[in-house]
Amino acid sequence: METKKMEVLYQKIAEQINDMIPSEWSKVVLYAEILDGSREVYFFFQTPENDEYIYSHDIPEQFLVSKKIYTELLLDLQELFKQLHNEFKENNPEAWTNLTLKLESTGTFSINYDYEDVIESDLDEYERQMIWEFNNLGIFPEDEEDKEFVKDYLNIK
């Protein structure tokens, strides 16, 4: 069930993402994982000039942004997702463990909640990210061994 607070949080999340990207952007695809003891948030974005995805954690290096400022903004974004997770738990019988958010500069917005128990998963965080990147962005890892892992996992030949 969606609540007014969730709607406000969606807006704040979109604004925070916009504040974190130091250029014009056309599309953002974000992964958030909120567990009892940990939080993970990262995203990829495209610019109007380039369809190639830019990884959020590369922003400081690629755009000469202070790592300290980027980390503060990232922690604020993680906190917004934690609030969204808490609001969701209070109003729904089952809480999500991770989500994929897609946002376009036109305002188009979608969110896909996942309830998989990632702690019980056979995949580690790095492997989950590789699979998520392929499933949501069509990006294969550059490393041949990692590429083979993704292909084997997804039964792609």
UniProtKB/TrEMBL annotation:
<dbReference type="Pfam" id="PF04634">
    <property type="entry name" value="YezG-like"/>
</dbReference>
<dbReference type="InterPro" id="IPR036170">
    <property type="entry name" value="YezG-like_sf"/>
</dbReference>
<protein>
    <submittedName>
        <fullName>Antitoxin YezG family protein</fullName>
    </submittedName>
</protein>
<dbReference type="InterPro" id="IPR006728">
    <property type="entry name" value="YezG-like"/>
</dbReference>
